[in-house]
Write a structure and sequence with these properties.
By secondary structure, the chain is α+β, with helices and mostly antiparallel strands. The protein has one domain: 2-Layer Sandwich (TATA-Binding Protein), CATH 3.30.310. The chain contains three helices and seven strands. The chain has a five-stranded antiparallel β-sheet, covered by helices on one side. A hairpin with a 4-residue loop joins strand 5 and strand 6. The longest helix has 19 residues.
């Protein structure tokens, strides 16, 4: 009986640990703006970034020329990023989160997946310019 209880406790503990995976925060810094044309402007870059985020369910807020704040809410989780950009590059930087176990260095691994998908969508939109 004691062995069975020990295995149950060990199983529950394993599930808790697997459910709380954290990894170092993933950031995109200085990614090049790659397009198929030279005839684009800062507004085109902004529009591409906003469209990419919106297509993935992010709320995109234009703070000022060269800076967008993106917020993604998934169930009880929230991730917020700053996206500084110019004609030649952009970054996706951690700003805030809720219920993602952020400790100043690491964060729930879902966050990194969201940022990688956002980066891919931004690249896809920029390539259409």
């Amino acid at each position: 009986m004691k062995i069975k209880a020990w295995f149950m406790i060990a199983g529950i503990l394993a599930l808790v640990l697997v459910g709380c995976r954290t990894n170092p925060v993933y950031s995109v810094e200085g990614a090049p703006v790659t397009t198929s044309t030279r005839g684009y402007n800062l507004r085109d870059v902004r529009d591409a970034i906003q469209q990419a985020g919106i297509s993935l369910g992010w709320q995109m807020r234009d703070v000022r020329p060269g800076l967008i704040i993106g917020t993604l809410t998934v169930r009880e989780h929230m991730a917020q990023v700053e996206i500084p950009y110019n004609r030649t590059s952009y970054s996706i930087l951690y700003r805030d989160s809720q219920n993602l176990n952020y400790d100043g260095v690491s964060i729930h691994s879902n966050y990194n997946g969201w940022i990688q998908r956002l980066n891919g969508a931004i690249n896809a939109q920029l390539s259409r310019l």
